Write a sequence for this structure.
């Protein structure tokens, strides 16, 4: 009997030591903030969507999030912040087509590896680009813009707030046989401000960034880079309808953590975000902002990124653009 009591006491003490340790390992720890890095400026389509869904996921989970915009440097600055942080799940980055697609075509050597340095958590949004022109031009169609630029080679300018926008502008230049300058901005919000002010002539931005200005009647969509018209922008024809069928681009954004993040933490994050992204509320929101959500697991998202990189490299190669 004494031996049994000693064994039972030992087991109880052992469990007492194990259970608090397990509780300490729970992710996320109660009250510990999760930092979400956005490598683009505040007011961009990526930033707007992140602020929307982070609030909802926080309400659902009780987790504490901190959004940290780190724009500039071809998005290298924001990614460097993630890669300097511990691989513990408490730092994520929300990014997509620019950093994990186009940059691989624009630069011979990147300060990061879009495949090897990151673990994809889940995609959040896919969105086509919208072609917008400054109001002073009084244009109604993409064809009118093409004719105007063709008649005045080198006299017009396109604003770009990300390298994905650079891709859209260069595709437009190549496919339509145009000559125009590109003016780089830190983000799409700033580029549209200058577009409205007449400092640049046109731009391609993701539908999420364009929608507020379109709904307000400040800017008119001339065309979209989707295969079919958007329910949120039924008045905007596709680039195919505008006579430029090869310009089909989908911007996209996903959540990533640093390679080496523990699998339980990645799984916890994926379940929390995917649960909300698959909800009717989010699907309605993303549709109203001109995008859509598609559920992809880690392997599928990695394959998608590889295809995006290959497509960007092929596009710039055909356009005669050499990586820097």
């Amino acid at each position: 009997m004494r031996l049994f009591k000693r064994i039972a006491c030992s087991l109880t003490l052992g469990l007492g030591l194990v259970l608090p340790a397990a509780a300490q390992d729970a992710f996320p720890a109660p009250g510990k903030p999760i930092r979400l890095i956005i490598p683009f400026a505040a007011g961009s389509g990526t930033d707007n969507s992140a602020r929307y869904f982070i609030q909802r996921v926080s309400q659902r989970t009780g987790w504490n999030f901190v959004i940290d915009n780190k724009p500039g440097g071809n998005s290298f600055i924001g990614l460097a912040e993630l890669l300097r942080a511990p691989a513990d799940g408490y730092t994520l980055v929300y990014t997509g087509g620019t950093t994990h697609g186009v940059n691989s075509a624009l630069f011979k050597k990147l300060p990061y590896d879009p495949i090897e340095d990151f673990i994809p958590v889940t995609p959040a949004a896919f969105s086509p680009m919208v072609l917008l022109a400054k109001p002073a031009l009084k244009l109604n169609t993409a064809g009118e813009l093409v004719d105007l630029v063709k008649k005045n080679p080198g006299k017009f300018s396109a604003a770009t707030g990300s390298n994905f926008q650079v891709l859209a502008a260069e595709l437009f230049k190549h496919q339509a046989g145009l000559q125009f300058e590109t003016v780089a901005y830190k983000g799409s919000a700033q580029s549209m401000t200058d577009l409205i002010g007449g400092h640049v002539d046109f731009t391609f931005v993701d539908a999420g960034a364009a929608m507020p200005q379109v709904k307000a009647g400040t800017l008119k969509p001339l065309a979209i880079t989707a295969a079919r018209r958007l329910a949120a922008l039924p008045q905007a024809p596709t680039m195919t309808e505008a006579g430029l069928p090869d310009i089909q681009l989908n911007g996209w954004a996903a959540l990533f953590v640093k390679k080496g993040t523990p699998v339980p933490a990645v799984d916890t994050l994926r379940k929390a975000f995917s649960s909300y992204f698959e909800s009717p509320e989010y699907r309605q929101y993303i549709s109203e902002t001109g995008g859509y959500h598609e559920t992809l697991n880690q392997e599928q998202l990695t394959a998608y990124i590889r295809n995006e990189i290959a497509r960007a490299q092929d596009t710039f190669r055909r356009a005669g653009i050499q990586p820097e």
Summary: The first strand starts at residue 34 and ends at 38. Residues 2-24 form the longest helix (23 residues).
